[in-house]
Design goal:
The protein is built from four helices and 18 strands. By secondary structure, the chain is of the alpha+beta class. The chain has an 18-stranded mixed beta sheet that branches.
Length: 278
Amino acid sequence: MRFTKMQGAGNDYVYVDCFAQDAPSNLPDLARKISDRNYGVGSDGLILIRPSHVADARMQMFNADGSESAMCGNGLRCVAKYAYDHHICRRERMRIETRAGVLAVSLEITGGLVRLVTVNMGEPILDAARIPTTLPGERVVDREFEIGGQTLRATCVSMGNPHCVIFVPQATDALVLGLGPLIETDERFPQRTNVEFVEVLSRGELRQRTWERGSGETLACGTGASAVCVAGALTGRTDRRVLIRLRGGELELDWREDDNHVYKSGPAVEVFQGDWPD
C-alpha cells in the first residue's frame, strides 16, 4: 500500500490515495498499526482520500486508537493540498466531503504547489444535546464542573466533533496529560470529547494545548482551534478573529458574524511517501 505522510501545524497523519489504489481492509486495525510511533510509520491517525459523489474528494479519518472520527481541520487542509498537488482536482477552490458534511476550501498556490489552505469549518454547534454533553444547560458556556479533585470552567462546542474548552492561567502537563484523559472519557461526554486547555495572551492571541479524543496530546487540532475561537468570543475573553499558537505552529481563526461560520487558515506540508506491507 502506497502512503503519504503529511502534517498541518504538526498534526500529522498517514494518507492513502484511494483514487490511485483500492482502499485497504480492516481500517481500524491498520490505523492502530500504522500510527504507532515505535513500530509503525508514526502519526496521529490514518486518513483515506476517497472519490465522492457530492464533492471533489471525500475524507475518511481514523484516530490512532482505531476509532473513526467525523472531522479533522488540519487533516482536511492536507487532503486539499494532496488533491491539488497530485492532480486529483486542480482548482483553487474545492469541496471536500466529510462525515460532518461537505466543507469548502480555498488554496494559496506558490510555485505550482499549495502553501496555505483556508477552510470554511461551518457553523459551530452549541446545543448541549447535539455536542453531546450532559453538563447542565442548553448551552454550556463557562460552566463550572469538578473532575480529578479540581474545579474547572468548561465551554462546550462541536465543530463536527465534540470539544471541551477550558481557559487556564497556564496549560501545564498536569492539566493536559493528567486531566485531559479523565475529561475525554468522563460520563458527562457520552461520545468522549476533545479537550483544549487555553491561555489568553490578548484579545487577539491565544496559546492552546489539546488532548485529542483517541490520539492523546497532539501538536495541533484544527477543529479544536475553531472551538477555542468560538469559546473565546462567547465568554468575552477574545475577539472573533484570533491567532492561535499551538505546539506545532500557528492557525488563524475568524468566526464571522455575517454567516456564523468559522474560517481557519494554516499550512499543509507533505513530509514523505512510502510503502506499507500488506
